[in-house]
Amino acid sequence: MAERSTAAVDVADSGDESLTAQAGEATADGVETQEKAGEDAENATTGAAQNTSTSSVPDVEPPELHSGHKLARRYRLEECVTRLDGFSSWRAVDEKLRRAVGVHLLHADHPRARPVLAAARSAALLPDPRFVQVLDAVEEDDLVYVVHEWLPDATELTTVFASGPLEPHEAHQLVSQVSQAMTAAHREGLAHLRLTPSSVLRTESGQYRIRGLAVMAALRGISSQQPQRVDTEAIGALLYAALTQRWPYEENAYGLSGLPKGVGLIAPDQVRAGVHRGLAELAMRALANNGATPSRQEQPCTTPEELSKAVAALPRIRPPEPSFATPAYQPAGYRRSQYATPPGHHGPGVPAHAVPAPPPPLQTRSGKMLKWTVAALLIAALGLGSWQLADVLINRSDRTDESNGTPQHTGGGGSGKKKKVPGKPLEIANRTEFTSGRQPMVPAKVPNSADKDPGTAWTTKAFYGYPNFGNLPEYRDGSGIVVDLGSAKKVSGFDVDLYRGGQTVEVLAADEAATSASALSDFPERLTELEKAGAKLKTTLDKPVRTRYVLIHITELAPDDQPDKYRGGISEIEITG
After folding, report:
1. Which residues neighbour 4 within 8 Å (Cβ) at sequence distance 6 or greater?
2. I want to staple 281 with a disulfide (CB 3.0 to 4.6 A). Which of 295, 297, 509, 538 is the partner?
3. What is the DSSP string of 405-417?
4. Bigger pLDDT: 78 or 8?
5. 472 versus 45: which is more confidently predicted?
6. For residue 223, is pLDDT > 50?
7. Is pLDDT larger for residue 82 or for residue 32?
8. What is the pLDDT of residues 282-297, one digit of tens each?
9. Considering the entire predicted model, what is its pTM?
10. Average pLDDT over residues 18-43
11. What's the rounded Cα separation, in Å, for the pair 472 and 137?
12. What average pLDDT does the segment 121-130 reach?
């Protein structure tokens, strides 16, 4: 009997193509030969590794499967990227959702099978977009397999580090995003314990994603009495490598050279000149061994939360200025010869044909008068032509309106154009929160959206990483406010004050006969196009619409007060008719 993780299946069946994932270079969840060597080196040298243990199991062969094999008649195995410690990792295709996924496989009777299932199901309950999501965890046909995202546009830090040290702003983004993500994970009781350059990915948009949360430690049989300390020191090692392109221990690992033997842990600025001082001190505080740190008098950071707060306390590190290529300087009047002069014909540096000099400008009084006369004639001609063109276009528009049977309202001095007249405010009977019927946002603040007080507002929760509500499947339809007018009325416009500019918003209406409206499909009438709006959204409709329900629909949020943090909301809603 197949046993499935309900939470994981809900994610996999959501159909959200934005969740297609995994780092398509050549590995799955950082499990590769190089990483195996890196693990040995790390466990032999890190202070935190003294608190970790790896359970030993008898030699167990991974399941013997082949490319093309299907799991659950859905996941087609494509390429085996790892066979190690009794499990194998594959790049596969989810044929139901038509997207690439990653799969870890091991025998159901493997000593680590149960811990792997438990870890995968726990990780699946953390829908944080900063982690590569677990999509399914299954025991079926004597096999246990875990399905996770596959990020084709992401690059492992092993590849990033191979090209050189990161500049300070990018290193700051790395340690900030990873420490914040691990803080959130530990609050839910989840640890990584295998946080290496192979398990952190950088996407094309500059976001960092962590793969293998809890699962990789379970696959390797790794446990720790101080999981927060282990993960914090691992983040410190990533920051150290980002600043110096060296692994902060004596052994080489992850394609990086280790430190000189016998000298111990040395500060990053002693390894490489020009290292950002604040980031270097943070790396040393996170890498503190036995409670001591060489970094002046600061206390060591022993949890991801302490490290995240220390990162936030740093002065702002500005991104590098963009460089623009400038042409080589050439003196005024200099003109390069089109062809080179053969040596010995005209002497060195003398062109074969002299370039004639331009005629001198008109300096006499008659010359100046001629210039001004020509300029005046040109301006007059342009003005006359523009006036005639505008007259032709207006006449053509009038003829088109008359042919369509549209009456023209002309008044004293009017242009003959029909003017939109804003209606009167309609009474709002009720307001409710639109949340796709899955997860509520902040229902208690809904009355603030139409209380005649611009200083109050209905606001969303804070989301991290992505403006489309954190790229979370339970908010894939966005959010907003549904306005109930009490009965079907003629709506001619609306005036909406948004919580802040930069949100992507549209206004929709339900059918005239609708007696209730809560799902997105209940609003077929589009009153405005979906577009990024400013602080105010005000429109008078060309043709009034009769409806009872109007949805102010937000699909993307605006940047908030921190990097990679997004929030939205509505301050005031007025419907006119």
Report:
1. 136, 137, 138
2. 295
3. T------TT--SP
4. 78
5. 472
6. yes
7. 82
8. 999 999 754 444 545 6
9. 0.54
10. 39
11. 19
12. 92
Please report the domains of the chain, with CATH numbers, ordered by start residue: 3-149 (3.30.200.20), 155-312 (1.10.510.10), 430-576 (2.60.120.260)
Cα–Cα distance, 462 to 451 (Å, whole number): 23
Indicate the helix (H) or strand (E) that contains 102: strand 99-107
Position of tokens 């960092």?
208
Cα–Cα distance measured from residue 341 to residue 328, given in angstroms and rounded to the nearest whole number = 22
Calpha distance 134→473 (Å, rounded): 13
Dihedral of the alpha carbons of 346, 350, 352, 353, in degrees to the nearest 10: -130
CA 405 – CA 520 distance, rounded (Å): 36
pLDDT at residue number 395:
59
**8 A C-beta contact, residue 244 and residue 272:** yes
pLDDT of 554 strictly over 70: yes
Dihedral sign from CA coordinates of 183, 184, 189, 194: negative
Q: Are 523 and 506 in contact (CB under 8 A)?
A: no
User: CB within 8 A of 55, min separation 6: which ones?
Assistant: 111, 112, 221, 222, 223
The pLDDT, as a whole number, for residue 191 is 97
Q: Are 490 and 546 in contact (CB under 8 A)?
A: yes
Sequence-ordered list of residues with C-beta below 8 angstroms from that of 29, at least 6 positions apart, any chain:
89, 102, 104, 132, 148, 199, 211, 212, 215, 216
Q: What is the pLDDT of residue 289?
A: 57
Give residue-wise pLDDT tens across range 478-534: 899 999 999 999 999 999 999 888 899 999 999 988 888 888 888 999 999 889 998
Residue 140, exposed/middle/buried by CB under 10 A (0-12, 13-18, 19+)? middle
Q: Residue 477 has what pLDDT?
A: 85
d(CA 392, CA 527): 32
Q: How far apart are CA 190 and CA 205, in angstroms?
A: 26
Query: Which residue's structure tokens are 């500060």?
Result: 267
> Can you give the pLDDT at residue 402?
43
Cα distance from N-terminal residue to C-terminal residue, the chain: 60
